[in-house]
Design brief:
seven-stranded mixed sheet; 7 strands
């Protein structure tokens, strides 16, 4: 298990970011379901509107749990990825339900590798670990006890801010081989064969 997620895989001339919502992601074509500020293309990720081998890097961060057919999305990522290009996959494992617009599943590292669609795994690990899992569930638990939406939103913000420093414990815990048993988000970097 790699305690530090690699970030040095090169950006190419054309890069695709899946599920960027309203974020501005420099150096990428930002694709999401809906046109909101920051989104360049509105489309279903299971049927990407791009030619084969267009992108040198594809970022798929917390999207696979929201699509109906993740295997189809992975075939599309492989199709639009140029030979030798990289795809970065991040998915939740131990994480609360969250719709955008639906939430269908969770993944382990082994599950992500099964979806790799014949691409070479070049890096794997946990982006957020056991502490993040405990904290996010604690916040969700407290929100269940509150009757009004505005109170739940306030609790989310206040508790998130107060508890955030505890997340630094994951810097230590992610070094343990068992950290993935209750890890929060896992990642995989894959490379399309040349």
């Amino acid at each position: 298990m790699n305690p530090r997620e690699p970030r040095d895989f090169p950006l190419g001339r054309w890069n695709l970011y899946l599920g960027g919502a309203g974020r501005v992601v420099k150096g990428y074509v930002n694709l999401d379901l809906f046109i909101v500020p920051g989104v360049d293309v509105a489309a279903d990720a299971e049927c990407l509107p791009f030619a084969d081998s267009t992108f040198e890097r594809v970022e798929c961060d917390a999207v696979l749990e929201h699509v109906l057919r993740p295997e189809q999305l992975m075939r599309e990522i492989r199709r639009v990825l140029a030979p030798g290009g990289y795809a970065h996959l991040v998915t939740p494992f131990c994480h609360p339900f969250h719709e955008y617009p639906k939430d269908f599943r969770r993944f382990t590292l082994d599950g992500l590798k099964e979806l790799a669609c014949g691409m070479e795994v070049v890096a794997e690990g946990w982006r957020t670990g056991p502490t993040a899992t405990v904290l996010v569930f604690a916040i969700e638990y407290v929100k269940l006890l509150l009757p009004w939406r505005v109170w739940r939103a306030a609790a989310h913000g206040i508790l998130g801010w107060l508890l955030f420093p505890f997340r630094y414990l994951d810097l230590l815990l992610l070094r343990a081989p068992q950290a993935g048993r209750i890890g929060n988000h896992c990642y995989l970097w894959v490379r399309k064969p040349r």
